[in-house]
Structure formats: C-alpha cells, structure tokens
Write a structure and sequence with these properties.
Helix content is 74%, strand content 0%. It has helices at residues 2-23, 29-51, 62-88, 91-98, 101-113, 119-136, 151-159. Helix 2 (29-51) crosses helix 3 (62-88) and helix 4 packs parallel to helix 7.
C-alpha cells in the first residue's frame, strides 16, 4: 500500500507545482504560501475528524511534539522558499532542484538515523544529482530570461524537502 500512496504523493506534488506556478503569477509568494498553508491546515483537520483520530492527540509525547513542531517549521521554510523560487524561476528548473531532497534525505538518514546506503542506492543518489544538474543546466542560446537572474536557485535549494 505504501507504494500506491507514494505514487499518489508524487502525482499530487506534480499537480501542486503547476497549480502553484499559476497561482503566484500576480500574487506575492509569501501571501500565496500563507493561503496554501491555511488550506492544508483545514484539510488536515478535516481528515483527522473524518477518521476519528483526534482522540490520539493526548497520547503524543513531548519528544514527538518537539519533532513534529520542528518538522512543521522546516516545512514552512521549505514552502516559503519553494513558492519564491517558482515565482522567480522556470518550473522545469525549480522542481528538479526541489526534488533533490531525495538525495539530501538519503544522506541525512544515513548520518542521523543510521540507515544504510548500499552500492546501488549510492549509485542512484549520484545519478539523481547528475540528472538534477542536467535538468537545470543553462542553455547558451536562452538570453531572454537573463533579467530574472539566478536568485530562484537559492530559493529552490532551500525548498528541497521531504514533505
């Protein structure tokens, strides 16, 4: 079941990127992030209520609260960076950098959680990194968008997330 949900996540993430790019064309990226966050908040609590899992809130330990709060802060920072990167850069360059979180997550899981990295997984990480670079490499003939600069890259790198 996890694989179906993971593909669902990828599908909705792709749709999210397109909808977000359309939604921020004439809106400040921070305001757009705030609106999106409210929608996610309402939808999340609706799911909690529909599934009847609200009774589990009292069972959450302090350490779990800490990690969930820190995760929420990281997600917020990621979304702010992501929306600003989408506003400044091309979606076909921002999204691959954002999805480089796969590489970062695998490396961080190795360092902090002790998860192993096999040779095939290491090769995959290297290939994802190379693929990301190839997708964002600047075309020599594309001078029409030089005025925007490369600020989008720093926001996109900051948005690389696991959520």
């Amino acid at each position: 079941m996890w694989i179906v949900l993971a593909f669902g996540s990828a599908l909705f993430a792709g749709i999210t990127a397109i909808l977000a790019k359309c939604g921020i064309r004439k809106t400040d990226s921070n305001v757009a992030t705030a609106i999106r966050t409210v929608v996610v908040l309402l939808f999340s609590w609706l799911m909690v209520l529909l599934t009847g899992s609200q009774s589990q809130i009292g069972e959450i330990g302090r350490k779990t609260w800490l990690f969930l709060i820190l995760s929420g802060l990281a997600t917020g920072a990621s979304w702010l960076c992501y929306f600003r990167a989408l506003q400044l850069g091309d979606i076909n360059k921002v999204v691959p950098v954002d999805k480089s979180s796969v590489v970062l997550t695998i490396l961080l899981a190795f360092l902090f959680l002790g998860e192993e990295i096999s040779l095939p997984k290491a090769a995959g990480v290297v290939l994802i990194g190379i693929g990301t670079f190839l997708m964002i490499e600047k075309k020599k003939t594309d001078t029409s968008k030089q005025a925007k600069g490369n600020r989008w890259f720093f926001y996109a790198a900051g948005s690389a997330r696991t959520s």
